[in-house]
Design brief:
ABC transporter involved in vitamin B12 uptake, BtuC; 14 helices; 82% helix
Length: 267
C-alpha cells in the first residue's frame, strides 16, 4: 500500500491529512474549553455556503470558504458582544441563513448534485499546491500560538475575567481563537467534508479530556490521538477500500466509546 504514496495527489493529501490530524485538534480543545461548540456548526454551514458560491460562480472553493467563514465569524462575534447576547443565538440564526443561501445558489446556478455532495464528503486527493501550503501554514500558526501564548491561553480558559485583570488581552485571545477555528474548519471540510470534520477536530479533544488531567496534557493527547486517527484511518481506508473520512470517523468513535465506558465504570 505504501507505493501509492508515489502518486503526487495522494502524497499531497496524505501530508496535509497528517499535519492536520496532529494540529487541528488543538482548536477542538479551544472550542470545548470556551463552550463554543455551536460555533463549529455555524462554520460548517458557512463552509457549505462558501462552497456553493464557489461552485456556482467558478471561484476557488478553498479561499471562498475561508472568506465566507471569516465574515460570518466577524458578524457573530461583533453582534454577540454589541448586543450582549449569547453566541449560540447568533450562530443559530447564521446557520439557518447560510444553508438557505447555499441552496439558493445551488438551485439558481444548477450545480450538479455530485459537486454538491462533494461539499459534505470532502476530497482529500484533489488538493492543490496552494491549498497544501495553506494547510501547512495554518498548522504552523496553531503550533506557534500554543507554544508562545500557552500561559495566556490557560488563564483565559480558566476564567476570562480573571485573565483580563491579570493583564491578558481577553478580547484578542477570543478573536484569535475563533478566527483560527474558521480557517481550521474550512480546511477540514476540504479534507474530509462537513459531515465528518468533528472526527479530526472535536473527537480527539473529547477523548483527551476523558483521560488527561491538566490543560497541557489535554492538548498534547488531543494532538497524538488526531495523528493516530489520521495515520491509521488513511491506511485502513486503502486496505478495506472505504473513504478515508469514514475510516477516521470509525476509529475515533471506537476509541471514544472505549474511554467513555472506562471513565463511567470508574465512577
Amino acid at each position: 500500500m505504501v507505493e501509492i504514496l508515489t502518486y503526487p495527489p495522494v502524497l499531497r493529501g496524505f501530508l496535509v491529512l497528517m499535519v492536520a490530524g496532529v494540529t487541528f485538534p488543538v482548536t477542538g480543545v479551544y472550542l470545548l474549553r470556551m463552550n463554543l461548540l455551536p460555533l463549529r456548526f455555524m462554520l460548517m454551514h458557512g463552509a457549505i455556503l462558501g462552497g456553493a458560491i464557489a461552485l456556482s460562480l467558478e471561484f476557488n472553493p478553498f479561499w471562498t470558504t475561508i472568506l465566507v467563514n471569516l465574515l460570518l465569524v466577524w458578524f457573530m462575534s461583533h453582534s454577540a458582544r454589541s448586543l450582549e447576547t449569547d453566541t449560540g443565538f447568533i450562530s443559530t440564526f447564521i446557520m439557518v441563513a447560510s444553508i438557505g443561501l447555499a441552496f439558493v445558489f445551488i438551485y439558481i446556478f444548477d450545480v450538479p448534485s455530485q459537486d454538491t455532495l462533494g461539499l459534505l464528503w470532502g476530497s482529500l486527493y484533489t488538493l492543490t499546491n496552494v491549498e497544501m501550503y495553506g494547510g501547512l501554514t495554518l498548522a504552523l500558526v496553531i503550533i506557534l500560538l500554543q507554544v508562545f501564548r500557552r500561559r495566556q491561553l490557560k488563564a483565559f480558559f480558566f476564567d476570562p475575567s480573571i485573565a483580563f485583570t491579570s493583564g491578558v488581552n481577553e478580547s484578542a485571545i477570543y478573536y484569535t481563537v475563533v478566527m483560527l477555528t474558521a480557517f481550521t474548519v474550512a480546511l477540514a471540510m476540504r479534507l474530509i467534508g462537513a459531515l465528518l470534520l468533528d472526527a479530526i477536530i472535536i473527537l480527539p479533544a473529547l477523548i483527551a479530556m476523558l483521560h488527561a488531567q491538566s490543560h497541557s496534557r489535554v492538548v498534547l493527547w488531543a494532538c497524538l490521538w488526531g495523528g493516530i486517527f489520521s495515520l491509521a484511518g488513511f491506511f485502513l481506508a486503502l486496505w478495506i477500500r472505504i473513504p478515508t473520512s469514514s475510516a477516521i470517523a470509525l476509529l475515533a468513535t471506537v476509541v471514544f466509546l472505549f474511554f467513555y465506558l472506562v471513565s463511567k465504570s470508574r465512577k
